[in-house]
Amino acid sequence: MSTPVHKGIMESVKDTLVGSIKGTGEILTTVVDTVSGTLVSTIKGTGAVGTALTSTVSDVLRGAITGTAQVGGDLGATAKGGVIGVLKGTKEVGAEAVGTISTSARVLVKSTAEVGGDVGLVARNAVEGAIATAKSVGLGAEEAASAAATGALKGAGEISQEAVEQVQRAVTGVIAGVKMVVKEPFK
Predict the structure, then answer these.
(1) Most buried among 115, 132, 143, 163, by the most CB within 10 A?
(2) Helices marked H in 47-96 — which ranges?
(3) Residue 124, in any domain of the structure
(4) What pLDDT does 7 receive?
């Protein structure tokens, strides 16, 4: 479903991360910087909004997960860095934060399943990334956490019942000092 341009974005992010992680071993900062920078330049270059923005975020995060998996890196750190990077990048171009958080968590969970990773770990780290960045994008920690948890559950629902159960366990309770509340049922 990706257009050649978006396939290029995914491959570019993946290749950048593979090289950087191999070179430095640093995942979180590398992912934040790569995701944020790629989104800003792509969105400014294409004027992506709405569905095009969602597609761009999806391609960037899929590239981040596949690149990290390729070098055997920590997918949890990639998820956290991915959400932080998406929020930083989309804030710079004025995108709506709650929907972006939910989309990011959904894509991260689905991409993690595609590479055989731990969807629960990734879901929890996506929530942590949303909480860590919430204030800087004008959201409360609870609202950001809820958006991430809801998105992660939607992504898990597109995979399997087992994935849903893993994500539910991972995003229930208190994460980074925030009581988790999922506002809408996943579909």
Answers:
(1) 163
(2) 51-70, 75-92
(3) yes
(4) 61
Cβ atoms of 101 and 148 within 8 Å: the answer is: yes
- Calculate the alpha carbon distances from 78 to 28, 46, 117 in Å: 6, 25, 12
Tell me how long the chain is.
187
pLDDT in tens, 99-155: 999 999 999 999 999 999 999 999 999 999 999 999 998 999 999 999 999 999 999
Q: Is 157 left (phi over 0), alpha (psi -120 to 50) or beta?
A: alpha
In a domain, 186, yes or no: no
In eight-state DSSP terms, residue 75 is: H
- Quick check: is 17 in a domain? yes
Q: How many CB atoms lie within 10 A of CB 54?
A: 18
Assess if residue 167 is contained within a domain. yes
Quote the pTM value.
Answer: 0.88
Give the integer Cα–Cα distance in Å for 152 and 101: 10
Domain count, the chain: 1
